Amino acid sequence: MLYRYGEGRGRIPTERLLIGCPVCQEPEVLKLFLRSLRRLELPGVQAAYHFVDDNHDPRSKALLEAFQAEVPNVTVRRPQRQEAEMQYRGHNWNEHIIWKVAQYKNHMIERALREEFTHLFLVDSDVLLHPKAVRHLMDTGKEIVSQVFWTRWQEDAVEQPQVWIRDFYTQFDQKPGEQLTQAEERARTYAFFAMLRVPGLYEVGGLGACTMIRRSALEQGVSFRPVRNLSFWGEDRHFCVRAAARDIPLFADTVYPAFHVFRPGQLEGGRDFLQRTEPD
């Protein structure tokens, strides 16, 4: 454990945070994402960044290089080969891409353990962060906690959080054997949404894309390796099942919601979010 010295207080343990992100992103979105990272408020934290540069657009590669030149403790890894069909920007995902990204995240877990980081924060490159959010997630003391953001997965759909209660993406509670009508399922789903609109910390069954993991959870073996007898799509589901199997609770925090630039039409909304949340 590293220490820093506080006036009249002797040695104070220093928290070490690794911020990890696989990046294959449009330059306009990536520019906003990196801007949100530059303004993070992390008092008492030694922060390092670990990016996997999976970009195909040279402008995005240049943005990561500029960030590395300007910000201390930035590592940019580049895969040995990149293939056009492997692009996952624009949410054009397939099974091969999912497990490639899962492998990147597992490498970040290995680095966090090897280099004695106290926390690992994994975030997608289209998620814009409030300046206080990351420090706040560390301060919750929870082993695994995600900052909530809201997304319209289809343009005409209702906004939904990236956290859920059970299974693949079920967002209503249901007791074993309980039969619900569609109206009851909808009412319980909206009750879950209403709860998450109130700033607070809530236990959930699944999460991802903006997640703080304490070292204690990493040491228990949580990872993004596929669970062999589970057919759920997406590496975050397998991570959450592995955590639950180890009796590690999952939490969603809604105090400092993030902003998800899910489609190009939301770029202006992302700029507005950054302006509204600028530090004083």
Written account of the structure:
By secondary structure, this protein is α/β, with parallel strands linked by helices. It has a single domain, classed as Spore Coat Polysaccharide Biosynthesis Protein SpsA, Chain A (Alpha-Beta Complex). The protein contains 8 helices and 14 strands. The strands form 4 sheets. An 8-stranded mixed beta sheet has the order 5-4-3-6-12-8-13-11, with helices on both faces. A two-stranded antiparallel sheet has the order 1-2. A two-stranded antiparallel sheet has the order 7-14. Helix 2 links the parallel strand 4 and strand 5. Helix 1 (27-38) packs parallel to helix 2 (58-70) and helix 1 runs parallel beside helix 8 (267-276). The longest helix is centred in the middle third of the chain and has 20 residues, at 95-114. Mean pLDDT is 92; it is low at 1-12 and 84-91.
Distance between the termini: 33 Å
The ordered H/E elements are EEEHEHEHEEHEEEHEEHHEEH
Question: Mean pLDDT across all residues, rounded?
Answer: 92
As a whole number of angstroms, the C-alpha radius of gyration is: 19 Å
Task: Kindly state the percentage of residues in helix.
Answer: 25-40%
